[in-house]
Amino acid sequence: MKFLFFLALSIIFMVNGLPIQNSDIEKTTLCVYTDNSKQIFCQRSEIKIQCDAFVVGQKSIRFLGISQQPIDSSNPELVKYFVYPRKEKSSTYLDHSNLIEGRSVENFLYYGEKSDNNGLRVPNLSCWNKLLDVLKGTEQIQKVKLTDSNEEVSLIGEIFIDDFSKSKRTSITKGYGYYGSYYF
Hints:
Elements: H1 2-16, H2 23-26, E1 29-34, E2 39-44, E3 47-52, E4 54-56, E5 63-67, E6 80-86, E7 97-100, E8 103-111, E9 118-122, H3 125-136, E10 142-145, E11 152-162
């Protein structure tokens, strides 16, 4: 699993060259979810975390912006972050909720032993707590407008959902929103 992660990073660096250090980027949280290993890798500055995770719901989205404000931050088991989908060749984000079969469905980054919500689920509470520490320590906040409204939301990071079976390796270097092509 780590091999695939480092292989993906090697390909990125071969295509783009080594990343330029940017102090603002080091203050934000960057994550990659790999569908074939069912794991999420997140980094903020020098802090890195790897957790088992599962995509629940719509699987065609490749980028998710992570909201600044968690929902219910008092109990780690109940903490959820809204995630805002972004299409691959777009710089704007969609709302965290969408209509599926006539009902509104919200997308979250959350802890859960079972799939109660759409979004990205981390099933291990210990790992979720470590991921929360990374997210809560994020200093750089990016304000973005949503595509379908003039609403502005604050993001603390972005998740790239990498589905090796559906994507070409060259597409990993394009469309990282406000982070440019910097990843880890």
